[in-house]
Amino acid sequence: MTCLPRSRKALLAAAALASLAPALMPAAAVAQSQPAETTEQRLRRMDAEIKALQRKVFPGADGKFFTPEITGAAPATAPVGTQATTPVTDILARMDSLEGQVARLTAQVEESQNRLSKLEAQMTALQPAPAPAATPAPVPAAGQTVAANTAAMTGGASAKPAAPAATPAPAPAPKADVPATRVAAVQAIVKPQTGDAGDDEYSYGFRLWEAKFYPEAQQQLLRFVEQYPRHRRMSYARNLLGRAYLDDGKPGTAAQYFVQNYQADANGERAPDSLLYLAEAMTRLKETKRACVALQELGEKYPALVSGRLAGETGRVRRGVKCD
Fold first, then answer.
1. Does 183 fall in a domain?
2. How many domains does one find in the chain?
3. Which domain covers residue 176, as residue numbers?
């Protein structure tokens, strides 16, 4: 091997080092040329890299807008058999149900008020026109006979106490306007004595009406109504009092007692009869509209009686009036 001179070896080594120097210098040079990152810069760089990663993983549908960078967890699908509604939904449903019930109750109340107003209007229509004022007949004292009452009503002498009703009393001297035969006929009617004073008074008035002594019957029944206002025969007495005036040719006065009997006790035994004869009284007064109202009320309130006990009388009254 040829030995190179020492100076030449040194030159070759220097050349080799010179050729490796460019490869070793960039890293060191770059490291020296770039300043060290601060903590804030490092956080910003990491934040930008995370946003870029989100845009890659969660792109928007139109390519312009992106989903929120931080979102809550997606709601899990409810397993089969779990509650389908929330408590708030249940409360809203119950409120809707309550509002529906309140609306129905309000409608029922308004309907009831409307029916009540119609009934009051009908009752107002049933009120007859005021009858001419008449001088009230004096109420007979206990034990006074109807014959004496007849003399008092016709301007005769003052009444005298009579013998017990079971025994006909002798007739007083007849006046010019009261035939003696009528006085005797009235005295011949015996007042019952059953131990029930109120019932005896009513029965006596009924016997007088049945015998067609209408003024005397009116007197007797008025006495019963005033003295026994709570008697079980009150519905009968008021109705019969109206009939006594009706049969006596005084439909205006009769109508007042019929209306009073119906309004005082619509469930009374003779309340439907009073409605029926009220229609007849209105027919006689040429009050067709009021007569029809009374018949309509009778049919609506007492349909069983209209087709039963009162069928014949109802048909007779209806034939006498033309209702729409």
1. yes
2. 2
3. 136-231
Amino acid at residue number 215: P
Verify that 158 and 218 share a domain, yes or no.
Answer: yes
- Distance, in Å, from the CA atom of 223 to the CA atom of 169, rounded to the nearest integer, reads 20
- Give the domain-ending residue among 231, 246, 263: 231
Assess whether 280 and 324 both reside in one domain: yes
Residues 6+ apart with CB under 8 A from 270: 235, 236, 238, 239, 240, 261
- From 184, 203, 231, the end of a domain falls on 231
Same domain for 258 and 275, yes or no, is yes
Look at residue 175 in the predicted model and tell me its pLDDT.
45
Catalogue the long-range contacts made by 314-319 (C-beta closer than 8 Å, 24 or more residues apart). Answer: 314/276, 317/276, 317/279, 317/280, 317/283, 317/291
Closest listed residue to residue 174, CA positions, set 165, 185, 163: 185
User: Domain with 290 in it: what CATH number?
Assistant: 1.25.40.10
Distance CA(92)–CA(98), nearest Å, equals 10
Residues 234-285: pLDDT tens digits?
Answer: 999 999 999 999 999 999 999 999 999 999 999 999 999 999 999 999 999 9
175/162 Cα distance (integer angstroms) = 18
pLDDT tens profile 63-122 = 555 555 555 555 555 555 555 567 667 777 777 787 788 788 788 777 777 776 776 676
Q: What angle do CA 216, 222, 223 make, to 5 degrees?
A: 90
> pLDDT at position 180, please?
86
pTM tops 0.85, yes or no = no
Contact 137, 153 (CB under 8 A): yes
Answer yes or no: do 212 and 253 share one domain: no
